[in-house]
Amino acid sequence: MSDSVPFWKRKALAEMSPAEWESLCDGCGRCCLNKLEDEDTGEIYHTDVACRLLDGTSCRCRDYPNRRAQVQNCDQLTPDNVPLLKWLPKTCGYRLVAEGRDLYWWHPLVSGDPETVHAAGVSVRGRVGLFEDAMGGEDLEDRIVSWPTRIPPRAKFPPRPKLPADTTVSPGAKIPAAGGIAPGGKRLTSR
Length: 191
What we know:
It comes from Rhodoplanes roseus. Belongs to the UPF0260 family. The protein is of the alpha+beta class. It is globular and about 65 Å long. It has 2 domains: 7-156, no CATH class; 160-191, no CATH class. Strands 1, 2, 3 and 4 form a 4-stranded mixed sheet that branches. The protein is built from 7 helices and 4 strands; from the N terminus they run ααββααααββα. 17% of the residues lie in helices and 8% in strands. The longest helix is centred in the first third of the chain and has 6 residues, at 18-23.
């Protein structure tokens, strides 16, 4: 395959350089949420409690190089274990590539903008209820949430382009986005 094809479409996880590997992380922070596993069924439950090293704004680790020394249960993703980690979000770049799927439109490698993961509602920004070090006597079972297992509707498809406010459209023209203009060029206003 040609080098014009993005690396994640032409390389297996094990073939990636360290820089390519690290760039697959979309910065959502979902993997940094505490999870519980049912010992009988193996089912994974996500919580809104984040690792104490997670930066709630950037959704990145505050001490990434030393994270495993500071957080004993921090899982290091590898090409070998990614296919086995069923708790990885459905939107995770590592999981998608391991499954032979493409990255979503909001992934920074696709969009060119690290903020699109937040704009698409995929990241944990603004959704972390607590950080581990603030748990006190609370039980993790009381913090179980379902949103980390879902893909937000606005993350599934890229936003449609908006037409400039002064745009008129000829009758019968296909409009890529409503943009406040009805077929026939009539301007729509809300009441």
